[in-house]
Amino acid sequence: MELLTERLLLREFVKEDWTAVFTYQSDPRYLRYYHWTERREAEVQEFIQMFIAHQSTQPRTKYQFAVVLQEGGQLIGNCGVRKESAEAQVADMGYELDPNYWGYGYATEAATAVLNFGFSQLRVHRVWANAIAENRASRRVLERIGMQLEGTLRENEWMKGRWWDTVLYGILEQEWQQL
After folding, report:
1. Cβ proximity of 117 and 3 under 8 Å
2. What are the tens digits of pLDDT across the range 18-75?
3. In angstroms, what CA-CA distances link 129 with 36, 71, 147, 173?
């Protein structure tokens, strides 16, 4: 399965993708808003294997796409949408990008494609996402794709020796249709 945007190809993960993911997940800028303080090769290989395993699940409910530049073929991140069950009418979405490609609109482009996939192909009623409240760039992506801030969960996430606020965003199918 593939999704094509103006500049990106969102495709299924393959085993060999772990090296590109390991490279960007080892970057301290990437690690800032994650539980991890470092990444190990075996952990990233497991991470990718989990996405590959989703591909053969029937009925399929989880889609995590490798985000690849059309020009040059460089893997620069991933973006996905997940339902809890085949019958679920609600899905969550998430994305991550190599810090070397931040600020170029790639996250917004990939998230828009995955949001469209969620509503048009998975036929969900609502898509939600959460983010660390301090991660302004991630919040801007969610707002640019039409999601609305639904709330702040104060000191909801413990990581790196402190409590972090998280924010919840959502969009309904009828709101997406009006974009």
Report:
1. yes
2. 999 999 999 999 999 999 999 999 999 999 999 999 999 999 999 999 999 999 999 9
3. 20, 29, 9, 15
3-state secondary structure of 117: helix
Token pair of 68 as six digits: 């690849």
Query: What does the domain layout of the chain look like in residue ranges?
Result: 2-177
Going by their DSSP bridges, the two strands 2-4 and 8-12 should be labelled as antiparallel
Alpha carbon distance 29, 17 (integer Å): 20
Distances (CA, A) of 82 to 10, 51, 85, 112, 136: 15, 11, 9, 15, 23
pTM of the predicted model over 0.70 = yes
- 142: Cβ contacts below 8 Å, ≥ 6 apart: 111, 129, 131, 169
Q: 3-class SS at 167? A: strand
SS3 39: coil
| Token representation of residue 116 | 């469209």
Size (the chain), residues: 179
Domain 2-177 classification at class level: alpha beta
For tokens 């040059």, the residue is: 72
